[in-house]
Amino acid sequence: MNEDATMFALSAIAHRSRLAIFKALAAAGPRGLSAGEISGQLKIVPSSLSFHLKEMSRAALLSARREGTYIYYSAEEEVMAEVIDFLIDNCLAEGMPRRPE
Fold first, then answer.
1. pLDDT tens across 12-51, in order?
2. What average pLDDT does this structure show over 76-95?
3. Long-range contacts for 10-17 (Cβ within 8 Å, ≥24 apart)?
């Protein structure tokens, strides 16, 4: 992951609601959650949720799939792992242990 993509992902998740969304989606696993489920679980009004989901999608932090009339969102945990690896490789002291594969 290059520096620009990393900065974009970090800025996209550097918001209380977006971090909560990512945590909820990560906990939901690959099935993900519909926008309605996210809204209900986190008490985020649909208009705000739509904005946050769009920002996170642009940063590749989540993926979306349509099932009938619903859109289900899933966390892109591998992208977050790449952000973490970038920070370890470029921002921490040499010799810091990497996360296990």
1. 999 999 999 999 999 999 999 999 999 999 999 999 999 9
2. 84
3. 10/83, 11/59, 12/55, 12/56, 12/58, 12/59, 12/61, 13/56, 13/59, 13/61, 13/80, 15/52, 17/42, 17/44, 17/48, 17/49, 17/52
The 3-class secondary structure across the chain, one letter per residue, is CCHHHHHHHHHHHCCHHHHHHHHHHHHHHHHCEEHHHHHHHHCCCHHHHHHHHHHHHHCCCEEEEEECCEEEEEECHHHHHHHHHHHHHHHCCCCCCCCCC
